[in-house]
Design brief:
The chain has helices at 3-19, 48-55, 74-82, 85-92, 109-121, 193-196, 223-240, 250-257, 345-360, 365-368; strands at residues 37-39, 44-46, 64-66, 138-146, 153-161, 166-170, 180-183, 188-191, 201-207, 213-219, 263-269, 278-285, 288-292, 302-305, 314-317, 328-332, 337-341. It is of the alpha+beta class. The strands form three sheets. The protein has a seven-stranded antiparallel beta sheet. Strands 14-13-12-11-17-16-15 form a seven-stranded antiparallel beta sheet, with helices on one face. It starts with a helix and ends with a helix. It binds zinc ion.
Length: 370
């Protein structure tokens, strides 16, 4: 074996050892396991997707090397050993607000990208950083809002005020009265790229006084502005719900501020009188199962709270009338049976797994109030 080749193998072995230490076996930005890249300016290890964002930075902020395929020098190895993910995050993520949502591997790209830009490009979390716009839970700016009954996206002025527990939008800037005001404490915000086909989009959801859900969709040309809005709403809810109090549990904050849907996607559904199959967009949001005529519909065609087995809910593969059909399943409720069909075996399994977990959970008093 040539000396160069042997040296390379030895350095790769040393690099592999460094990766086992100091939190280096997880991506420094999204926590994905076994990252295959490294930033040799910061001395941190990164997954493919996060490394892609770092590559867009200037070389004084970031230089990316592949752990497996690039050539490593002794100086680079020494630098990685002296730094590493734990040390890096102690600097770059030192002052992350408790309400700020840190991305995990399965989160939308816009959340990961803006987290990485916030950490290293805008340096929002280092000592002495200027106050970011979302910190106080008050914001004023423009978002495109999807029309209720048409497919247009129109620019609207949005004003968020944590002090007033309100998020309002105006048709025209000079309007004195908002077109609508959300109760911030009661809205849920989720990323909506799967529904809108827009990378930088959010869905606002709230349950009206009649117990039915209403959806609003907004988007922005700027990933930064979208995430600033998302974090500002979380910041407002954080204060309004008293989560900043001394008895608040930081580990529970994330799920209370914004709730991702457990599962969503198209399924075919049978009507109660065995009408023809209809394609519907289904969303499982906690115990609430909703189906819509199309993904961006403002209101659901139907929604039900999934109870536990004790309340008469059940789930099984297939259906009595359509035994011959693949990927079909039946959800039994006290009122009626819902016959639904997925397009693949895997899709059916994922839906049935999620629904089974809900049915297996006893209902709390809060669940019963809907
Ligand atoms: Zn990552």
């Amino acid at each position: 074996m040539s000396t160069i080749r042997r040296q390379d193998q030895e350095r790769k072995a040393a690099l592999s050892k460094i990766q086992q230490e100091n939190g280096n076996d997880y991506c420094a930005d999204c926590s994905e396991q076994h990252p295959k890249f490294a930033c040799i300016v910061k001395g941190i290890f990164l997954c493919l997707e996060c490394a892609g964002v770092h590559r867009s930075f200037s070389t004084d902020v970031s230089r990316i090397k592949s752990v497996n395929t690039d050539v490593w020098t002794d100086e680079m190895l020494q630098f990685m050993e002296e730094n590493g993910n734990i040390k890096g995050n102690a600097t770059w993520a030192k002052n992350v607000p408790v309400f700020y949502r840190r991305p995990t591997p399965t989160d939308p790209h816009v959340l990961k990208e803006q987290w990485i830009r916030a950490k290293y490009e805008r340096k929002e979390f280092v000592d002495g950083a200027p106050e970011p716009p979302y910190l106080k839970g008050s914001m004023r700016g423009y978002l495109r809002k999807k029309g209720k009954d048409d497919s247009s996206w129109k620019v609207r002025l949005f004003v968020l005020s944590a002090d007033n527990n309100s998020l309002s939008y105006y048709i025209k800037d000079q309007d004195r009265t908002p077109k609508f005001t959300f109760n911030v404490k009661e809205i849920n915000v989720t990323f909506a790229q799967d529904r809108t086909n827009e990378d930088n989009s959010l869905q606002f959801t709230y349950v009206k006084s009649d117990g039915l859900t209403r959806n609003y969709f907004v988007s922005s040309g700027s990933g930064k502005e979208l995430i600033d809005w998302y974090m500002a709403i979380r910041s407002a809810k954080f204060c309004l719900l008293g989560l900043n109090g001394p008895r608040a549990d930081p580990s529970k904050v994330n799920a209370i501020l914004t709730r991702d849907f457990t599962m969503e996607g198209f399924l075919q559904k049978k009507g109660p009188r065995d009408e023809p199959w209809a394609k519907r967009w289904f969303t499982l949001d906690g115990r609430r199962l909703l189906y819509f005529k199309e993904p961006m519909a403002p209101s659901a065609l139907g929604e039900l709270i999934i109870g536990s087995r004790t309340e008469g809910f059940d789930l099984h593969e297939g259906c009595t009338r359509h035994q011959e059909l693949d990927y079909c399943f039946t959800l039994t409720t006290p009122g009626r049976d819902y016959v639904v069909m997925a397009t693949t075996e895997n899709e059916r399994k994922m839906w049935m797994d999620c629904l089974s977990k809900v049915i297996a959970q006893p209902m709390t008093d809060e669940d019963k109030q809907g």
